[in-house]
Amino acid sequence: MQTVDTLIIGGGAAGLQAALVMVRARRSILVVDSSTPRNRFAHEIHGVIALEGTPPLEFQERGKKQLRSYGVTIANATVDSVTDNDRTLTATLSNGETVAARSIIVASGVDDVHPDIPGLEENWGNTVLHCPYCHGFEVADKKLGVLCIGEFSLHHAALLRQWSKDITFFTNGMELTEEQRADLTRRGLALVDGPVTAFQDGKVLVGSTPHAVDALFYMPVPHPHDEFLTDLNLERHSPPPAMGGSLIKVGPAGATSHPRVWAVGNVVNPPAQVAVAMGEANAAAIAVNAFLVEDDWI
Q1: Phi/psi of residue 208, each to 5°?
Q2: Nearest to 108 by CA among 23, 16, 21
Q3: pLDDT one-digit tens code per residue, 115-150
Q4: Which residues lie below 8 Å from residue 90, measured CB to CB, with a gap of 6+?
Q5: Partners of 237 in the beta sheet?
Q6: Could you tell me which residue ranges the FAD/NAD(P)-binding domain spans (predicted)?
Q7: What are the chain's domains?
Q8: How far from 274 is each of 4, 52, 56, 134, 173, CA to CA, in Å?
């Protein structure tokens, strides 16, 4: 069984950044990653200086290549379970291997759960989008739609008004108050009532009536990849509904309720963009190394 100072679970932006800091601190590490980052459906990364326009999978491969130049091993796998063994944690991987680690940084991300409406998931990352800061500039001044999936969609619609004046808000069966309707109308949004039945060929179908848009925005519900940590009984919290049902609770620098486990990026902060996730991971890696500096002498 391999033993490392730090096991890093996830090889997206957060995991790669944490790995870089740890290996440059001369720590033995293993990165476990399935090569399915959350942003793989997007054409390009935006809003990150010097990475502007980089395809997500190209970014990931470039990061992995840089880590390998330091001698880092990246296992193409997922983690099935983690158990506590006093001063180490044992992780069982999907490839059958087991790893003993003195510390773990969880950067395993989330899956985006889409409404059960035909055409949404199929067009995700193309004409179906979520983040105005990530994708708004590319569709600025075009005809946009906002699909209502809850209270947060009202804020989403108001935010998108910064990128376009031509926005249609699809209530999707949600009953809006008169105040909510008045606010959306005041901002210049058109309202279309009734359940959305499909999205196809750039058209939002409400019943059998098509409404053409250049892009449709909504926030899918994030599902965190953290089931493999169940045996550790980490403390959790319930964020607002738009951020998912339950997330691992973290403190400064991503510290969890277990003294040897840190968690960063979308798995604990679903709205975090690439730059934010990398910043969280950088801080966590520094904290982990500081912990190990003391643990070395116990």
Answers
A1: -110, 5
A2: 16
A3: 999 999 999 999 999 999 999 999 999 999 999 999
A4: 1, 82, 83, 98, 99, 100, 101
A5: 247
A6: 5-281
A7: 2-110+219-294 (3.50.50.60), 114-215 (3.50.50.60)
A8: 27, 11, 10, 10, 33
Predicted model pTM? 0.95
- pLDDT tens-digit series, residues 74-94: 999 999 999 999 899 999 999
CA distance linking residue 130 with residue 260, whole number of Å: 34
Residue 88 near residue 102 (C-beta atoms within 8 A): yes
74 strand-pairing partners = 31
CA triple 124-222-168, angle to 5 deg: 50
Give pLDDT, residue 258: 98
Task: Give the phi and the psi of residue 293 in degrees, each rounded to 5.
Answer: -55, -40
Per-residue pLDDT of 145-169, as tens digits, reads 999 999 999 999 999 999 999 999 9
C-alpha 289, offset from chain centre: 25
| Angstrom distance (rounded) from CA 219 to CA 206 | 19
Spatial CB neighbours of 214, under 8 Å, sequence gap ≥ 6: 127, 139, 142, 143, 144, 202
Q: Is the dihedral of CA 123, 278, 64, 55 positive or negative?
A: positive
Tell me the β-bridge partners of 117.
none
Q: Under DSSP, is residue 21 helix (H, G, I), strand (E, B) or coil?
A: helix
Gyration radius from the chain CA atoms: 21
Q: Tell me the residue type at 94.
A: S
| Pairing of β 128-129 and β 98-106 | unpaired
Q: Report the candidate in 195, 181, 21, 44 with the shortest Cα–Cα distance to residue 103.
A: 21
DSSP 96: S
Neighbours of 249 (CB within 10 A): 16
Q: Which tokens is 168 given?
A: 């249609």
Which of 102, 107, 106, 108 is closest to 291 using CA atoms?
102
